[in-house]
Design a protein that fits this description.
Blueprint lengths: L1 H15 L4 H27 L5 H30 L2 H4 L3 H5 L5
């Protein structure tokens, strides 16, 4: 969970730095790398045994605040970039590589 949150924050930072077409094009390789890492983490999480209800509750308590902050930040940046085709077009293929859970 900690690694997933870190990758969300890393992707948020990469998106935050996109301000024009040039910076969007420059972000492609970084976003590709982050997306590959996120997909790998998702595969690892799927392969893990499902936590017990007690473990799940403990994980939620431990990571809930950080996860909400990371998701809110990421969604804000995704929305900002996706609303502007000049910013989104260069990274669209990279973002579409992310597996949906």
């Amino acid at each position: 969970m900690k690694d997933s949150i870190a990758k969300m924050k890393e992707l948020t930072a990469a998106l935050h730095n996109i301000t024009d077409e040039k910076s969007s094009q420059a972000a492609v390789s970084r976003i590709d790398s982050i997306v590959a890492d996120v997909n790998k983490l998702q595969d690892q999480m799927k392969a893990m045994a499902k936590p017990s209800p007690e473990e799940d509750k403990a994980l939620q308590a431990k990571y809930e605040k950080d996860l909400k902050e990371a998701l809110n930040g990421l969604m804000g940046e995704v929305l900002r970039v996706s609303m502007n085709p000049t910013l989104m077009n260069p990274i669209k293929a990279s973002m579409e590589k992310m597996k949906r859970q």
